[in-house]
Specification:
CATH topology of the largest domain: Rossmann fold
Shape: globular
Largest sheet: 7 strands, mixed
Oligomer: single chain
Structural class: alpha/beta
Number of domains: 2
Strand content: 15-25%
Distance between the termini: 29 Å
CATH architecture of the largest domain: 3-Layer(aba) Sandwich
Strand order of the largest sheet: 4-3-2-1-9-10-11
CATH superfamily of the largest domain: HAD superfamily/HAD-like
Number of strands: 11
Length: 246
């Protein structure tokens, strides 16, 4: 892992492909995943980015594509969109490519809801190809939540994915890095260095692939072990940088 702590330079996006995480990167994290706020300035910025980079922009998230459409709507119609940590991919203007949902996820949903569903501080988030336990409001259950998810991991190709104050059970065999690598094989991203921006441990595979393809990662948040080349302190700092470079 690299230990660099540099702000991204002006001109980094020139002739690049831009891959953007959503939560903690474009929008502030919220106590409940449905409570994030997407304001008009972000919609306008994303629309300008699509023109500035001739469509070489993608949203790459752990959320499902359906959830991302709910937040961003027609604004991301010109974008490629990756959901479910790389398991769902929708090329710009295309249809969503996704595998069948493992039946074992339904059993996990029931188990997670039976244990934590009555606690209003905890959110059980059902995703297209996963199910997550968000315990930001009850950090004392972290160990138990992780143990419960781990008990279901490895079943029928499922894996545990830790994040900020959450733990998710999702399909194995995909991550944000594999999705970015796939998108980089074809137009409009082929031949352009990928820049990936993210804040969480789930974003590290994307940072690695971006560097491998001649691009770079930008870490949002406090410094830690990371494959990113550059760093900005928070969402506001990144959006300010993006405004100046859009």
């Amino acid at each position: 892992m690299a230990h660099q702590d540099l702000p991204p330079p002006a001109g980094l996006l020139d002739d690049a492909g831009l891959f953007l995480d959503f939560d903690g990167t474009l929008v502030e994290l919220a106590d409940r995943p449905e409570a994030v706020m997407v304001g008009a300035p972000l919609h306008a910025l994303l629309a300008r980015l699509a023109q500035r980079l001739d469509g070489r922009v993608a949203i790459v998230s752990g959320r499902s594509i359906e959830q991302l459409d709910g937040f961003l709507g027609d604004t991301i119609a010109p974008y490629a969109v990756v959901g479910s940590h790389g398991a769902e991919i929708r090329p710009a203007g295309g249809t969503t490519l996704l595998p069948d949902r493992p039946a074992s996820l339904a059993a996990a949903e029931r188990a997670f809801t039976d244990r934590f569903g009555d606690d209003p501080r905890i959110v059980i988030e059902i995703k297209t190809l996963g199910v997550a336990i968000h315990y930001r409001g009850a950090p004392e259950v972290e160990q138990e939540a992780h143990a419960l998810v781990d008990a279901f991991a490895q079943r029928d190709g499922l894996t545990a994915q830790a994040g900020k104050m959450m733990i998710e059970l999702r399909m194995d065999g995909h991550d944000k890095g594999t999705a970015i690598a796939t998108l980089c094989e074809d137009a409009p991203f082929a031949g352009h260095a990928p820049i990936f921006v993210g804040d969480d441990l789930t974003d590290e595979p994307g940072m690695v692939v971006a560097a491998h393809h001649g691009g770079a990662g930008i870490l949002i948040g406090s410094m830690r072990d990371t494959a990113a080349t550059y760093r900005l302190d928070n969402v506001a700092a990144f959006l300010d940088w993006l405004e100046k470079n859009a």
